[in-house]
Amino acid sequence: MNLEINNHLFIVGGATSGFGKAIAQALLNEGAQVIVVARGEDKLRELYSGHENAELLSGDITDYGTIDQLEYMVGERQLHGMVVNAGGPPAKMVLETTLQDWDDAYQKILKWKVAITQTFVPKMMKAGYGRIVYIESSSVKQPIENLVLSNSLRLAVVGLVKTLSQEIARSGVTLNIIGPGSHNTPAIDRLYIKKAEQTGLPFEEVKKNAVNLIPVGKLGEAEDFASLALWLLSPHSRYITGQTMIADGGMVKATL
């Protein structure tokens, strides 16, 4: 399928690892122009300095200064799409958390997403076109053990995206969420480490037990996840907005 994104301009957060890396590289392979954002400058250069269509920004995308830099880099160009993606909060149970944990999670999961959305959506609306994909978690459909901060605040992102998608539905700008389950990325290890601490079982045994619970019998791969994201970032997804799509190998049992 021709995704029709050749020379389209995108922003991708968390571009040196996991889903962000896979999506950014897939976009570049499709001929898109991509502003890749991540905190590690050396890793950014290692991964993307050979791509003439990649523009590198070293910084924390959850920081408002980095969002300002992104706005400057886009300038007067049309921004066609954006992948709103950053790392998650620590794995904790409810009674382990402190109020500071909740304040930090609010910033890490929700507040900066409001800021970056309010920065770029008006520009997309003016152009009459835009695609935004938020990378959240399957926990928005079914809570995940030891992830109370994520379970709680990612639901607020769903509320944000659903509301805004309704408010601007006729603008040509779509906003959707992908909720990943267990994938073969570095982020999943924090859950296995936490479970190993709680049970006293070896890390590898905990991981094996967790994978055995996935209906398809294996972890997802970031490259497969990226293929869904690319379609949502393309003109072909024009009739899909305000939706949360779960990519989790069948773990979530909910029908809605």
Give an overview in words:
It is a single chain. With 256 residues, the chain is α/β, with parallel strands linked by helices. The longest helix is centred in the middle third of the chain and has 29 residues, at 99-127. The protein has helices spanning 18-29, 41-48, 64-74, 99-127, 148-167, 189-199, 203-212, 222-232, and strands at residues 9-13, 33-38, 54-58, 81-84, 130-135, 173-180, 244-247. It folds into two domains: 9-181 and 221-246, Rossmann fold, CATH 3.40.50; 184-219, no CATH class. Helix 4 links the parallel strand 4 and strand 5. It is built from eight helices and seven strands; from the N terminus they run βαβαβαβαβαβαααβ. The radius of gyration is 18 Å and the shape is globular. The model has no long low-confidence stretch (mean pLDDT 96). Helix 1 crosses helix 8 (222-232), helix 4 (99-127) packs parallel to helix 5 and helix 6 (189-199) crosses helix 7 (203-212). The protein has a seven-stranded parallel β-sheet, with helices on both faces.
Write a compact overview of the structure shown:
The protein has two domains: 9-181 and 221-246, NAD(P)-binding Rossmann-like Domain (Rossmann fold), CATH 3.40.50.720; 184-219, no CATH class. 44% of the residues lie in helices and 15% in strands. It is built from eight helices and seven strands, in the order βαβαβαβαβαβαααβ.
List key phrases describing it:
single chain; 256 residues; alpha/beta; Rossmann fold; 2 domains; 8 helices; 7 strands; 15% strand
Shape: globular
Helix content: 40-55%
Largest sheet: 7 strands, parallel
* Mean of pLDDT: 96
The arrangement of helices and strands along the chain is EHEHEHEHEHEHHHE
Low-confidence stretches: none
CATH topology of the largest domain, by name, is Rossmann fold
Q: What portion of residues belong to β-strands?
A: 5-15%
CATH class category of the largest domain: Alpha Beta
State the end-to-end CA separation.
Answer: 29 Å
Structural class: alpha/beta
Strand tally: 7
